[in-house]
Amino acid sequence: MKKLLLIALFFCFQISQSQEQEKQVSINFENALIPEVLEQLKQTTNLQFYYVEAWFENRRVSGKYQNAPVTKVLEEIFKDTYINYYFMDGGRVVLTRNNIIYDELPRGFFEEKQEAVAEREVEEEAYDPVFYTGNKTATTAPMETVYIGREDRATNRSRLSLSGYIYDRETGEPIPNLAVLVRGRNIGAVTSDSGFYSLQLPAGENILETRSLGSENLQMRVVIYNDGELNLQLSENFEALGEVFLESNLDKNVKNAYAGEETIDVREIRNIPLILGERDIMRVATTLPGISTAGEGAAGFNVRGGNADQNLILLDDAVMYNPAHFFGIFSAINPFTTGDVTIYKGSIPAQYGGRLSSVFDLRTKDANTEKFSGEVSIGPVTGNVALEVPIIKETSGLLVGVRSTYSDWILKSLDEETLSDRSASFYDGNIKYNHKFSDNTDLSVTGYYSRDSFSITADSLHRFSNRMATIRLNHKLSDRHRGSVILTNSDYAFDIDYDSDFSNNFTSGYNINETEAKLNMDFQLNPKHRFNYGISGKLYNVMPGEIAPLGENSIVRPLRLDTERGLEGAVYFEDSFNVTDKLLVNAGIRFSVFAALGAREQNIYEPGVPRRLSTKIERREYDDNEFMETYAGPEVRLSSRYLLTRDLSVKVSYNNTYQYIHSLSNNTTASPTDTYKLSDINIAPQRANQYSLGFYQNLDNNTYELSVEGFYKTSNNILDYKVGAEMFLNEAIETEVLQGEGRAYGAEFLLKKTIGKLNGWLGYTYSRSFIKLDSEFREERVNNGEYFPSNFDKPHDLSMVANYKITKRFSFSANFVYQTGRPVTVPVGKFVEGGSQYVMYSNRNEYRIPDYYRLDVSFNVEGDHRIKKFAHSFWNISVYNVLGRNNPYSVFFVTEAGEVKAYQSSIFAIPVPTITYNFRF
């Protein structure tokens, strides 16, 4: 009888509750506060609402309803809030924030153990109610608790999305490369350049932890009911400064799928002793396995056996054609304005294209929007100033960086007649404006300009410049979908003035300009799939060269080569697919197309015979924007990672790439006067295939990182030159170059210690790089058509970077470099023909110059680490080439008195001491 009575009462309660919910109401409100609307509902329906007014944060709503259910009205006014509601008997409505009030427990609630529930929630598809008691997790330290999302009965997902941005509390700048982990779960993320992170969490309680060597470590309890945002601010951890130069963000090196990816933390490279006290991002990069230069003073980089023109160097998405000052002695990248650097030398994401070997993705940091700040460096030959100026507090800021050398003043002050008329100077400037319109939309505008001027002989003056600009608009469409619209322009130019005592004085110049528009999208479909897709288009304009007489008495005839134009486009799609907890696959496809455009003339040659002016059969003319030749092809980007253990993974990758632009030079090292040529009717695009296999392991709780990776790369249509080729202002350059096959292989070893008083890394690379120039015609064959070492083939490359922290303020640093000498072609004999004496040379690149090695040391002194002080200072006392090694830059041969004599040139043959003072405010 009692049971029947209880059942009857329950049904009466349900009927009464249903009637209250279905009450019809007519109500109008315009831009009204939510409590005001609830008061109107109370007057109209006699319902009584219970809530905390602070929950609504002065939110205003508008609506017009005629005979609508009261539940529909409540759903509309609460749709953009975290508010739920529950109807009780007697016309009472209880509002709750985030969670739902349940009037029954889920099936099996009392039978299942808590541990079983925790494991089940990861796999089951149905959504269970979230019960949080406030003391579920045992912890001794006080911990802030935040509640995310609005619980929804209709949600049918086992994982919920949490995303947001992490900023520096003092400067307002985003914190990149910060690890965001979930305690007790195999879940984590690393913040992007803009400080963005995204996690897929099980519903309920999660303990979030952040880990970084440069910022405070934060612990926070997050109770998540639905998808939502959580933005964080962290303070800088001063005691950690200088501990690590290069880090892979905890276990990122083991967990991600990209083989051969390296990240440089620019803030942590200041202790590394480098030439003339300049912090040099690119020189730090060359201490990593697989990245080298052709020699000291070479302007380019060689990655995994590739030519210098096969590297895509991006500064805020704009292409930088020459990343060096003064023949590679200084980097053109300002370390004070650069946020971080990511290098892809194995697996290249599908969004990047146009180069065969690698991508250097450099990002300028955002300006401080909280307070005025800056950094200054004063060295023996250079000065550097970077200022961050808030424009609108917490909304926008301006970053300005200027760097210049005063070496011209030093040369003119020296009491040395041979140097008094020499010059060597450069300067560069960065400017970036960042504006945050809302939590979903932000804009950045970047500009860069650099200029070099040097005269190494009395009769010539060389000048070259880089100019770049970027506009980037980022927008978040939803918690799982975001995108960027990017517009860039890059310009590189050089000119030479030759002024001698003769009548052949001239001025000559070259210019390449490119403009690109790109749409890049990122979509987190679910915990297993993350898509990156987009489209890009690029327009090239190349002025291949011109010459004009310098002075009234010059007999040089003016000449200007036809402008080259080309259009390059691409669409791409990539899926990061978590097949299982152990297996992660990144599968991407990029389809690129290139069209050589008119207006221009092209030489057409007789088929079946060598290309030379005597075999030219016509000069074909093309109209403006007419397609002269089109090339296209798919580019597969495939990489995978398998976790053998929690701290050990194996990665396999395959890439095929296209490159539609070529550098033209018959120098053995890259120089600022190298020119670039677009593919056309006579010169085909370069293509490459690369395979890699690597093992990555972290030891002793991520204190040590160990990696071993092997690669094999083949390439086609690699551009090289004929014997005795004339490259300067040649209207038929295709008659002077050859296209052949390339082959490179090697193994890379890296051991890194990231924390502790002694830290740094040891890198070793064994690699070979060969090229084959074969043809049915003898004059187009080099070394009998067999493979021979490329100009940058250096089998052994060893680098060691170490820092010992004596105290929190004093440290000692050193780096050591050893490289096999690069190949060289040498004279091996003489012969007489027709009464004239000639020199006979060896096979191309048959010999090598002496091996290269160098030791640098430095002593570093930091100011005290008090937070509340105007400026934080830093002294660096270093000695470059402390052993005084006379390393050869090049070997050349001169005929004197009938004898062939060899000479060696060096850049720095003695120890070079430097004292640099830095302060940051």
TrEMBL record:
Annotated localization: Cell outer membrane
GO CC annotations, alphabetized: cell outer membrane
Q: List the InterPro entries hit by this protein, alphabetically.
A: Beta-barrel_TonB_sf (IPR036942), CarboxyPept-like_regulatory (IPR008969), Plug_dom (IPR012910), Plug_dom_sf (IPR037066), TonB-dep_rcpt-like (IPR039426)
Please classify the protein's predominant subcellular localization into one broad category.
Answer: membrane
Keyword presence, Signal? yes
Q: Which UniProt keywords apply?
A: Cell outer membrane, Membrane, Receptor, Signal, Transmembrane, Transmembrane beta strand, Transport
State the SUPFAM superfamilies in the record. Answer: Carboxypeptidase regulatory domain-like, Porins
Where is each TonB-dependent receptor plug domain found? 278-355
Record keyword Transport present: yes
Under the heading PROSITE patterns, the entry gives: TONB_DEPENDENT_REC_3
Task: Give a GO biological-process term.
Answer: siderophore transmembrane transport
One protein family per Pfam: CarbopepD_reg_2
Q: Which GO terms describe its molecular function?
A: siderophore uptake transmembrane transporter activity
For membrane topology, the record states: Multi-pass membrane protein
Q: Which family does it belong to?
A: Belongs to the TonB-dependent receptor family.
Q: How is this protein named in the record?
A: TonB-dependent receptor
